[in-house]
Amino acid sequence: MPAYNASRFLDESIQSILNQTFKDFEFIIIDDCSTDDTPLIIKKYVAQDERVIYRRNDKHIDQLIGRNNALGYVRGNFVAMLDADDLAMPRRLELQYNYLCQHPDIA
Questions:
Q1: Each residue of 25-46: b (16+ CB within 10 Å) or e?
Q2: Nearest to 35 by CA among 5, 10, 56, 6
Q3: What is the DSSP letter of 71?
Q4: For residue 62, what pLDDT is reported?
């Protein structure tokens, strides 16, 4: 999840991932040098849930470049993207994971 000055939406967005029915994931959040409370909000979740991984860019960069940089931290086999102002339905990861496992020809 790339985040830049997203404090207005971030709590709800992070909760939508942490409350997924599928629980076996790492949640990488890349702060793009926010100047609001975004870093504080992310750090709160890092302290509460070991699945949350916080990274901060050295300088403000384009969101697409930030997403690509975040891929360098991924340890799992699958990647799901979510913007900091979006919400995920509770079964999103479960449904996507199951589908990809049942259809290995899909990338």
A1: eebbbbbbebeeebbebbeebe
A2: 5
A3: G
A4: 78
5-48 pLDDT per residue, tens: 999 999 999 999 999 999 999 999 999 999 999 999 999 999 99
Token pair for 38: 């975004």
**Is the per-residue pLDDT at 67 higher than 90?**
no
**Is residue 83 over pLDDT 90?**
yes
The secondary structure of residue 54, as a DSSP letter, is E
Residue (of 65, 64, 75) closest to 28 by Cα position:
75
Residues 6+ apart with CB under 8 A from 22: 91, 93, 94, 97
Contact 71, 89 (CB under 8 A): no
